[in-house]
Amino acid sequence: GVLWLEEPLGRYEFDTLTRLAAASDLPIAGGENNIGLHEFRLLIDQNCYDVMQPDALVCGGLSLLRKVAGYAQMHHKPIAPHHGGNGFGIAAHLHLCASLANATWLELLQDPPALEVEEFQGLLATPLTPDADGFVRVPEGPGLGVELNERWKRAD
User: Fold this and answer.
1) Cis before 8? omega within 30
2) What local confidence, expressed as pLDDT, does residue 122 receive?
3) What is the pLDDT of residue 117?
4) Which domain holds residue 95?
């Protein structure tokens, strides 16, 4: 089945998004290109989206994503953060999502055969890949739990 309709309109079409969300039986998701807490407060206060999708690399960092998640939770909205960057960003988003009560999903760019999640994780020694059921384990090592691929390390 379909879980939601993602980013159906422009990110600043607040009034139209509100009307669409109110009229739709299908949940509306978005926010991956919005920036700053003020934009997410407008999106949440006006009920533009049923599911919030902030991306820490776009919205203002992991701390801001955590604030967005808290504000969304106060309004009974789940978040499903978007991430389209490298493996270090995936690791950071995974750790953050694991700590948030209202994080239901983490969106990773994977559209086989055109785009595999491993393709943009070349910086990592071991890519973070979804299992057969689509789950990715939260890395458990020190820091973010991932290591830099040897070929990217600088020789002294």
Assistant:
1) no
2) 74
3) 66
4) 5-152
